[in-house]
Amino acid sequence: MRVKKMAAFLVVIPLVLLLLGSFQTVGAAPLKVMMDGDNAYLADSNGRTLYYFTKDAAGQSTCVGPCVERWPLFYTEKVMVPNGMDAKEFGVITHPNGQKQNTFRGWPIYYWAADKMPGDTKGQGFNGVWFYFLNP
Asked: What is the value of pTM for the model shown?
């Protein structure tokens, strides 16, 4: 009986460690580079395009109120960057609404609510002030 308990213990411990390890990555999001014709741009792990707002100041978001409903904030606890990119180019700020928001090269990162499918880039050039991150 003691051998069975020890065997069960030896099986359960690695499973628990495996599960704990997977919980640590829940807050991590891998990013990827996608193509729009000849243009390479930054997207999240699901292929959703990431944008910046030219009216923002580096490190400070000015998209507030209804703007955030149309341009939701991008945030992940840990950014996992594609090969060839430097994780040091990403940061985190606190948006004026109190939520955390990731930045790329100092620019706050957003989604565009009208992009419904992976690879959609409907926000590119919107009103001449919203752009995806070209050739990241």
From this structure: 0.78
Amino acid code (one letter) for 100: K
Whole-number Å distance between alpha carbons of 90 and 118: 22
Helix, strand, coil percentages (3-state) for the chain, rounded to 5, are 25, 30, 45
Place of tokens 């996992």: 80
Report mean pLDDT in 10-residue bins for the chain, 136 residues: 46 36 49 94 96 94 97 95 91 97 97 97 98 91
Q: Alpha helix (H) ranges present in the chain? A: 2-24, 66-70
Q: Is there a contact between 23 and 73 (Cβ–Cβ < 8 Å)?
A: no
Amino acid at 79: V
